[in-house]
Write a structure and sequence with these properties.
The complex is a heterodimer of chains A (575) and B (87).
Chain A: H1 2-14, H2 18-39, E1 41-44, E2 48-54, E3 64-70, H3 72-79, H4 86-91, H5 102-128, H6 133-153, H7 167-182, H8 186-194, H9 213-251, H10 256-268, H11 271-275, H12 280-288, H13 295-298, H14 301-311, H15 320-325, H16 341-346, H17 361-406, H18 408-416, H19 422-425, H20 445-452, H21 462-484, E4 490-493, E5 498-502, E6 508-515, H22 518-530, E7 537-544, E8 550-559, H23 562-574
Antiparallel strand pairs in A: 1-2, 2-3, 4-5, 5-6, 6-8, 7-8
Helix pairs in contact in A: 1-2, 5-6, 9-10
Chain B: H1 3-14, H2 18-39, E1 41-44, E2 48-54, H3 58-61, E3 70-76, H4 78-85
Antiparallel strand pairs in B: 1-2, 2-3
Helix pairs in contact in B: 1-2
Classes of the chains: A alpha+beta (575), B alpha+beta (87).
Chain lengths: 575, 87
């Protein structure tokens, strides 16, 4: 049963299979046994130690035996247990019952009751003389057997011999010896204590039967209940009589006050009042003189005086009878207050302070309670207002974030989209034949201008001057146009149909024309070379313009300055 | 051998954590003590039997105290004794 319970518990808690749990269970005890065999000791916390003990008797089957020494925790847990078997109690030589088990007592009492009932019945039947003899004999037998059983149940522990004495018994004996030496009367006292009759040795005391209240009560209880029932019946009769009397009294012409009193009494009587009879006189004594505290004790006299001064009125003194009834306080201050130092010191929270007066404990308590209520109310209000603020701010923030999230694509479109660059979108300028953007040569207009400035202009004629003026105008126009497009590296001369290009080495070249095929370009170069212009070296540059196809640009140069290039270009166009 | 050794052995053999193994042992001990308390006797197969015996309070009377104390006795099973005595 125990094994099954443990296995079920393990399977339940650790979610293991039944087989695994069983294996674990077996392994634990197996390992304990192994430990005992190998190390001679296995120590298990919260349980105890299993130690190997060698048998001195050669007759026994096993040389080694196992002894169990329980741990302190285990002993403590078990010390309060009541689960000792009756068989063991009787069998075990060491056992001496200290307290008789409640079950045994109950059984005995039940048997006693039964016997009493039987005897009573037997007596009654005897009177009537209607009983058969065998029944009588049976009863007698039962009585005898019961008496014998009772005798048997009186447990007498076996006498200890010196050989089988335990350590405790030895201790006991020594102690008794010492006590006897010190006090010779001790032996008699000890006998009295143990309820032992004369003749029995000291070492074998009789068990002490401590009768608990629970087992003595049933007979008495029954009697008591009967008495109570009888009393209650009597009381009920009395009550009925009282009620009848009151009814009669009401019917009779009596004063109104008396009627009210009787009716009040009748209504005020509770169930408990029937059992605790309080005399009407006593009640009247209590009700007739209720404690009315004088005004002076409640309000400080200084305040009363002040009030009197203001109002010019004298408060009527309480009647002399009431003053007599009221017991005077033991200790009074100058202002007529009780010195409740403890109450005062315990509650220092709040009190009204009058001039030349000390705080009253009752007042302070009440005021402190009110003050606490107020404080709580204010705190609640503060908390609520704060909570409102927090909640509103949170909601606002959350709503803002939500709105931003919802309109994020729109906002992105309006604010963060990259603006289209005009330069990239602008179509490349140029003549029908020529293609403008020379990706190979990288040079800015600014650099072109810088280069033009320092260069010394060569000697020119009037025509040339005119041309130059025209060119400069063109250049300015071009500048205005080039300022818009920064990436341009070329200078166009629309009149001559030529574009000037600055190379990386700082020299200038002008593009005369561009052709679809390389042959045409080469032919053009040859034609120009045939004119025999100084410093003109033709070159063909291949350019891929994507959708427009591949073009072959015919260029001439390289010249030291832009002006030189322009002059050469003019010469070429003239021829 | 101690509990820690047993715990380690269990953990290694059954692929358990040491904490779990310790818990299992504690459950067994708890169960055994409960059973001892209630019934006064616990029998474990192939291991032995724990018995509860009540000590007499006569010794305690001297100190004006009527307290009975329980004592645990362990009786090893035949298998246990045979296993120990075999070499």
């Amino acid at each position: 049963m125990l094994k099954q319970e443990i296995i079920e518990k393990i399977t339940k808690y650790f979610k293991l299979t039944h087989f695994e749990a069983e294996r674990i269970y077996d392994d634990i005890f197996k390992s304990i046994i192994d430990g005992v065999k190998i190390d001679n000791v296995t120590d298990i916390t919260n349980l105890g130690e299993f130690i190997v003990k060698y048998n001195e008797n050669s007759h026994s089957e096993h040389k080694k035996t196992v002894e169990f020494l329980p741990s302190a925790v285990f002993e403590e847990e078990i010390s309060g247990a009541e689960g000792v078997r009756e068989d063991e109690k009787l069998k075990s030589s060491e056992f001496r019952p200290g307290i008789v088990e409640p079950e045994n007592v109950q059984q005995k009492e039940d048997q006693k009751f039964k016997e009493e009932d039987v005897t009573q019945a037997f007596k009654e039947e005897k009177k009537e003389e209607k009983i058969a003899q065998p029944f009588k004999e049976e009863l007698k037998k039962e009585e005898q057997t019961f008496k014998e059983e009772l005798k048997e149940e009186r447990y007498e522990p076996p006498v200890h011999t010196d050989e089988n004495l335990s350590v405790e018994d030895e201790m006991k004996r020594k102690r008794e010896e010492i006590l006897n030496k010190l006090n010779p009367q001790h032996e008699e006292e000890y006998h009295k204590l143990l309820h032992v009759t004369e003749g029995i040795p000291l070492n074998v005391p009789k068990p002490i039967v401590i009768k608990r209240e629970n087992y003595d009560t049933p007979i008495n209880e029954f009697k008591e209940t009967k008495e109570e029932l009888e009393e209650s019946k009597e009381e009920s009769k009395e009550i009925k009589e009282e009620v009848n009397d009151t009814e009669k009294q009401i019917e009779e012409p009596v004063n109104q006050h008396e009627e009210e009193e009787t009716s009040e009494e009748f209504t005020a009587k509770s169930f408990s009042d029937y059992f605790t009879e309080v005399k009407n006189e006593q009640k009247n004594e209590i009700t007739s003189a209720p404690y009315i505290p004088p005004v002076e004790d409640v309000i400080p006299p200084a305040a009363v005086d002040l009030h009197n001064e203001i109002v010019n009125e004298q408060i009527p003194k309480p009647p002399a009878e009431i003053e007599k009834n009221i017991p005077e306080p033991l200790n009074k201050n100058g202002n007529g207050y009780l010195e409740d130092v403890e109450n005062r010191s315990s509650n220092n929270s709040f009190y009204i302070w009058y001039k030349d007066s000390e705080p009253n404990a009752v007042d302070t308590q009440t005021m402190s309670y009110e003050y606490e209520l107020l404080y709580q109310a204010t705190k609640e209000a503060e908390y609520k207002s704060k909570l409102r603020i927090y909640v509103t701010t949170f909601i606002l923030f959350f709503s803002l974030v939500l709105i931003l999230l919802i309109f994020s694509p729109v906002i992105y479109k309006y604010f963060f989209t990259p603006q289209p660059q005009n330069e990239e979108v602008q179509p490349p300028e140029g003549t029908s034949d020529e293609n403008p953007t020379g990706s190979n040569n990288k040079a800015d207009v600014n650099t072109l201008e810088q280069n033009t400035a320092p260069s010394n202009p060569p000697p020119v004629t009037s025509n040339e001057q005119n041309n130059q003026q025209q060119n400069t105008q063109m250049l300015t126009e071009q500048k205005s146009s080039t300022t818009e497009s920064v990436s341009k590296t070329e200078l166009k001369d629309e009149k001559l149909g030529v574009t000037y290009i600055q190379l990386e080495n700082g020299k200038f070249v002008f593009q005369e024309s561009s052709w679809n095929s390389e042959e045409k370009a080469n032919n053009r170069v040859n034609i120009v070379n045939s004119y025999n212009i100084d410093g003109m070296k033709g070159s063909v540059v291949k350019v891929d313009l994507g959708s427009k196809g591949t073009w072959y640009r015919v260029r001439f140069g390289e010249f030291g300055s832009l002006d030189e290039a322009k002059l050469k270009a003019q010469e070429l166009r003239k021829k | 051998m101690t509990t820690t050794d047993i715990v380690n052995k269990l953990a290694a053999e059954h692929s358990l954590t040491t904490g779990r193994a310790e818990m299992i042992i504690s459950i067994i001990i708890e169960r055994v003590t409960d059973k001892l308390k209630t019934e006064g006797r616990v029998k474990i197969n192939d291991f032995g039997e724990f018995k509860l015996v009540r000590n007499s309070p006569t010794f305690m009377i001297m100190s004006d105290q009527l307290i009975s104390k329980n004592r645990v006795i362990f009786e090893p099973s035949r298998e246990f004794l045979n296993f120990i005595n075999t070499d």
